[in-house]
Amino acid sequence: MTDIDGQKERQRRLTAWRRAGRVLARASAETTIGERLASLTAGAGAVHDLDDWTDMYGDGVVGEVEHRVAELLGTQAAAFFPTGTMAQQIALRCWAGRTGDRTVALHPLSHPEVHERGALSAVGGLRTVHPTSAPRLPTAKEIREFPEPFGTLLLELPLRDAGFVLPGWEALEDVVAAARERDAVVHLDGARLWECVPHLGRGLPEIAGLADSVYVSFYKSLGGLSGAALAGPAELVDEARTWRHRYGGDVFQQHPAALSALLGLERELPRLPSYVAHAKVVAGALAEGFAESAVPWSRVCPEPPHTHQFQVWLPYGADVLNEASLRQAEETGRVLFRRWSAGPSTPPGVSCTEVTVSAEGLEWTARDVRDAVDEFVGFVGFVGREV
What we know:
Belongs to the threonine aldolase family. InterPro entries: ArAA_b-elim_lyase/Thr_aldolase (IPR001597), PyrdxlP-dep_Trfase (IPR015424), PyrdxlP-dep_Trfase_major (IPR015421), PyrdxlP-dep_Trfase_small (IPR015422). Pfam families: Beta_elim_lyase. It is a single chain. It contains 15 helices and 13 strands. The protein is an alpha/beta fold and 387 residues long. It has two domains: 3-35 and 271-386, Aspartate Aminotransferase, domain 1 (Alpha-Beta Complex); 55-252, Type I PLP-dependent aspartate aminotransferase-like (Major domain) (Aspartate Aminotransferase, domain 2, 3-Layer(aba) Sandwich), CATH 3.40.640.10. The protein is globular. 46% of the residues are buried.
């Protein structure tokens, strides 16, 4: 596929998703620039005084976001970053300097290993090791028995590429304790930490309090434009600010991103538990719908979901499933699935998609989902005959 073909395909997808009347979640990328700016302008006054001066290099409204995050997570301090990739690389670099050990233990499906082009080693000079390759976070036993030393243990909560999976609270406590026994510090990749509360059964301060530092995102679940925060001890955060400058992350003005972060914390954060609860309804209905269909087999992972996001696996090529998903959106106005691919943990011949349930998805009943599955399977059969 050429770049032009790819652009046309993206335009087709965005047009179909935007026009659809029924979706399980409405992604911010499906709006126009004008709509996004208008929405931000309409809501920003509710979370910050718009007569305040614009921010410069992290003061003003950016500082307010930092204070709010530290308050929510119960940490001494927090620093705003333009990207989570930068925040997390800097956190691990700072811990390596403090522990004297540049080895980071993490899952091979974690974000730094899969989505950052080897930046931990290429940019930070760090080395990574994997206590487990199972599609879940490591156990305390695996941490204790791992044959190599490491200075930092990174835990991605939830582990996205394994299906947004989480351990139980006691298991998480045990893993952290095992790392402490090895004199390692613990860092939480909490890009989606906000929605972990229902499954873990603990509040954000107690979850964040397990670790020495935590990173959170403002756009993945909260609907912000961009941006992230690194939270933890004041001394660590101060050092991270220095490295943020060195990495080119001291942006002159960031008030659009900061305002959207405050809006997400104010409006979306309180609603996440309802999304998590309804994701279980949607996932159960998907499993039932596929079980009653002509599809040879299917998998919802995990079932039930641990957060408001989960995976669905089907034994078809991604091209067939992507086309079937698009035709369903275009011809019926219902978006059940978006993009399919050969996932990092799926076997050959199987495609995977991520399902997110947010405000729009609360309107779907189990019956709605099963009907949409039946409809989707029909499109799969039609497209499959064309290929």
